[in-house]
Amino acid sequence: MRKPTIRDVAERAKVSLKTVSRVINNEPSVMQATRARVLHAIAELDYEPDPSARNLRSATAFVIGVAYDNPNPYYIISVQNGVLSACRETGFDLQIHPCDASSPLLVNELCDWMRRSRLAGLVLAPPMSERMELVEALASRGVKLVRIIAAAEDPQDGHPCVFVDDRDAAYEITEHLVQLGHQRIGFLWGGQEHRSSSERYLGYEKALQDYGITLDKHLVVPGDYTFDDGFRGARRLLALRDPPTAIFGSNDEIAAGVLAAAKSVGMNVPYDLSIAGFEDSPFSKQSWPPLTTAKQATEEIARHAARLLIAQLRLDAPEAPVAAVHNHGFVPQLVVRGSTAPMRPRPPPAQDA
Amino acid sequence: MRKPTIRDVAERAKVSLKTVSRVINNEPSVMQATRARVLHAIAELDYEPDPSARNLRSATAFVIGVAYDNPNPYYIISVQNGVLSACRETGFDLQIHPCDASSPLLVNELCDWMRRSRLAGLVLAPPMSERMELVEALASRGVKLVRIIAAAEDPQDGHPCVFVDDRDAAYEITEHLVQLGHQRIGFLWGGQEHRSSSERYLGYEKALQDYGITLDKHLVVPGDYTFDDGFRGARRLLALRDPPTAIFGSNDEIAAGVLAAAKSVGMNVPYDLSIAGFEDSPFSKQSWPPLTTAKQATEEIARHAARLLIAQLRLDAPEAPVAAVHNHGFVPQLVVRGSTAPMRPRPPPAQDA
């Protein structure tokens, strides 16, 4: 039997040769149903594309990198998935590089990495993206980069970015708790080196202020973006003589720790304690009760950052189509679920013995 | 003021020049405390390594790839972290490539990717790693690869692998439930294309058989490794006239769905229903009650796979030290937590009206 050709595939799938070629070369412009039909035809005929006939990409690798330092696996996987989706649209590949944001050698480390792996550009995740001296040092060495940062406004500092207005979203969460009647609202910080955490704190502080609620410093606990810090922080707050009736954990990992701490002391959430997180992670949907949170759209944010980077890289390649390069802002949206409820009055705190 | 030199750093940190050089070049042989001292000295002196003095790696990038198709983010991030840790030890970098395991063009896609990005080798995660025709096709094109596979024994088929004995671990979980008095134990499958899921099913089946419990086909539900399939499958089992008193979800995502389903119908876990998962994911520790599961050590498994791959790559480089290349097996360990408890007798099922 003769070997099947691309023509046989096109006939069987009832599409043009060009369409088969697009599917073989993984071009994004083919509709899902058409792509499936072509793939079925390829499988049925056992057709194998001839490498010399394939539209082989240039010998130069088009690879971008993502550098991150974050203890939250869902955040990282969402960033990766967003960047990968922009890579697939454009034929780029992705290297990942977790690093220590506090290392004084970080500039050298990142430049060495980019040079030895011939990376075309870099998506910088927080907190590195928020350290201006690092960004300046990389830019001065000619590194093309796009930052994902926490900021209420476009910084317009000449370094492309995608900015996420955590402050407004944190204001909304706090407002939601206040409107449920809560006056004593605990706040658990994420890592101080993440600007997102101070932005969220500022949103919390502003909402309390606007509603005339005095901020009680005992209700604010430092920590990192982790379950364990959420658990420890909540245990500390719940042991106060006058504990909070609601706790706002500055991400969902922290809020998960608060939920476990509340359950470990026999509290019924949300009736004995309201809990809110931030991120809209899978955990926030899967826990019981599911968590009130702010939907952060991390994947979309990262996809936009990668598109911005790739558009910038193509501006340098005169043969490629020129795309406009714009910074872009996102505002996470309040998502109300079962972990927050109207405040129930509590007995007054016990008097000193 | 003169620019600080590597000698100044060594003096200040009270270490040898060689040690400073090791830290600058990110070599793994420096103790944590020493490394910290050197980094402090570098930061205090504002020392910047001279690129020409740095032990710059060869112009060839040493990059390996991980290809995966898995809906479970924690599994993927653990695989990445394990591979990255082996990369850091050896100076390799990592590209990641999610793909569609069912695509008939997968061999071409992976070969194109490896060629254009000049990858030295590949870690194949399940289910691709378990499709022998894919493995053979890649090997015949000269691709160096190591597979992570579900298998009770070393397949010794000439293709290096790390094998994970899911069957024994699933046997142990089922045995644990039987020993708690459960006779009606539901089983929720993961994706049928994952050998891990059939291995786990076989362990479940064998344990029931060994304990003289007849397998009731109504208690076995197909699905994928997802929360939603766990939720749906559990709702179906709990709606049976004679529902199970325990459910074994074949990974923790599924078990999380079972937990939510049980809570959604007002059941008290573990008293009304025992639930076990598989993986020891963060969710299994963070949920309430925390989940009985099998600790899979995915990160360690992936680290071993990457070490095996890198050792293999170095065998091809005569100047590098030759390491022995051995396949390696892992057995996940039973972890008993709060989601499983002794069976409580139930009223007999209602008679037909």
UniProtKB/TrEMBL annotation, chains A, B:
<keyword id="KW-0805">Transcription regulation</keyword>
<dbReference type="Pfam" id="PF00356">
    <property type="entry name" value="LacI"/>
</dbReference>
<dbReference type="InterPro" id="IPR028082">
    <property type="entry name" value="Peripla_BP_I"/>
</dbReference>
<protein>
    <submittedName>
        <fullName>LacI family DNA-binding transcriptional regulator</fullName>
    </submittedName>
</protein>
<dbReference type="InterPro" id="IPR046335">
    <property type="entry name" value="LacI/GalR-like_sensor"/>
</dbReference>
<keyword id="KW-0238">DNA-binding</keyword>
<dbReference type="Pfam" id="PF13377">
    <property type="entry name" value="Peripla_BP_3"/>
</dbReference>
<feature type="domain" description="HTH lacI-type">
    <location>
        <begin position="4"/>
        <end position="58"/>
    </location>
</feature>
<keyword id="KW-0804">Transcription</keyword>
<dbReference type="InterPro" id="IPR010982">
    <property type="entry name" value="Lambda_DNA-bd_dom_sf"/>
</dbReference>
<dbReference type="GO" id="GO:0003677">
    <property type="term" value="F:DNA binding"/>
</dbReference>
<dbReference type="InterPro" id="IPR000843">
    <property type="entry name" value="HTH_LacI"/>
</dbReference>
